[in-house]
Design a protein that fits this description.
By secondary structure, the chain is of the alpha/beta class. The chain is built from 13 helices and 21 strands. It has helices at 21-27, 52-59, 85-98, 142-145, 150-163, 189-193, 245-254, 283-290, 318-330, 416-433, 439-449, 479-487, 524-529; strands at residues 39-46, 62-67, 70-79, 110-115, 123-124, 202-207, 227-228, 270-275, 299-302, 304-305, 338-342, 364-370, 388-391, 399-402, 409-413, 460-461, 467-468, 538-544, 554-557, 563-567, 579-586. Strand 19 (554-557) and strand 20 form a beta hairpin. Helix 8 packs parallel to helix 9, helix 10 (416-433) packs parallel to helix 12 and helix 11 packs across helix 12. The radius of gyration is 24 Å and the shape is globular. The termini are far apart. The structure holds calcium ion (CA) (2 copies). One calcium ion (CA) binds next to loops.
Amino acid sequence: RDRGGDWSSDVCSSDLVGLLALTCVTSAANLLPRNYEASDYYVLHIDSEAAPADIARRLGLSHEGQLGELEDHHIFSAAKHEDDRVQDAIKARRKLRKRGASEADVLDTVKLAQKQKLKPRMEKRGIIPAFKGEPSGALPKRQEVNVENPVGLARQTEVKRILGIHDPIFNDQWHLYNNQQLGHDVNVTDVWIQGITGHNATVAIVDDGLDMYSDDLKENYFAEGSWDFNDDGPEPKPKLTDDRHGTRCAGEVGAAKNNVCGVGVAYDSKIAGIRILSKLITDADEAIALNYAYQQNQIYSCSWGPPDDGKSMDAPGILIKRAMLNAVQRGRGGLGSVYVFASGNGAMAEDNCNFDGYTNSIYSITVGAVDRRGDHPYYSEKCSAQLVVTYSSGGGDNIVTTDVGSNNCATTHGGTSAAAPLAAGIFALVLSIRPDLTWRDMQSLAMQTAVTIDSADDWQTTTIGKKFSHTFGYGKIDTWAIVEAAKTFKSLKPQAWLYSPWIKVNKPIPQGDQGLAVTYDVTADMLKEANLERLEHVTVTMNVEHERRGDLSLDLISPDNLISHLSATRKNDDSTSGYADWTFMSVVHWYVPTP
Ligand code: CA
Ligand code: CA
């Protein structure tokens, strides 16, 4: 395998299959550079027995290779043309069959065909420009919070002495050790003192690049897990002037303990960069990116998503969804890749992370923000799919981390963008001592060990006696608590599913607060039959017609009166398209049987 330059589909020729089979799949044909000006790209899902070469010949396409790690999914290219030549051919074939054509056609092996188009760019979840009417706490006023606390300073000095931390801005990294508001940090220092600093754990930062030449990052940079999907090549170096976001996120995870800037929360972990946010890409490329090197990259930190404008309702396309499912089933040797997504910054616009198909996926851990005073930051979105929160900007401060450049530090990092990588880094600490835990084990550990935050007023006591708030999920991540619990955690049994049939309601939704109630009974026998002993996620897929989507809200109420606000009203959402096959998700009803 040569990542230096001369890679091509030939790398996967049959004489190399065997030892190199695994790497071949990710590093060869499907990473051929794309030329969207000159070419069309099609993804076809075909029968396992079908030969892509036959399909290519039949349709006059070039076979570019398998779609990343997705078996039986292939990319084909052709000269640019406004028509969808694959759909046209499939339609023509269907017509012929209807008329009784009986001879075999390789087109009959196609299960799904999708012409690729460049999709709207995903938004980074960094600090957003000031809103009108934004609370003043949103603006950085560091001096205001810099009230010396002698106890905190003394302990911090002691921690630095024990660990040999000489990083110049470590004292400003209040999210790691807050020497002013004691206890308002991720509670990691005693974990480090135990020697748990991220060894052998790997986090991929899926973002706008990662400055692998930064003196703070190069020591922990993981080249084998990195790729640039925007300027095709093995090195995801930031190139645009605003390509700083990914480097800042990477610093939060894995900035080295040295004499540059501060440290990452898992400062001995490996960090990979997967660059996708700096140009338009297709669903096919995003699907490949989210599975990239998924045997080595354990955690994918994603601080981006659809617009947080309070009117978008966007989910990843089918190929991306399949890639995420593939990763939890086959990534990390079958233990499952851990996806961490930022909850979103649209709270001021009444946006809600259940309108974002990445954050409301059961396969991602959705992480919101809390500020250094323990308050809810004005931007951090609420939803029933949010599992936990961790520290970020607000309350007069930001997150201080590594920046692009050989020795540059960033002082303006924040938003839920800064919360997700911090969580990802903490999960890396967990995997450094328990690499055998599954993606669901990690969710359970995060849920179990999260700590309630006083400032929210929407806490409900759940069925298992935990507290859940739509503002803060199950609370803030406590690094010490999650690592301690991980040491003895017993892996969960495989996931079980219980499906309800479609319930057809066909009734008008009355105006006002009363709404329309639909009940669905789940009996003990149904649970037994489905082999369902625990409850983790509940998803509800809905179709609702309505002339103004932002006026709709939806609650899921359990028999013990625990309420998931699956959707909430949104002042900006004028859409007339209602809910169309949209899947909402809740983690509120998490249930673990008592042993
Ligand atoms: Ca450093
Ligand atoms: Ca959002």
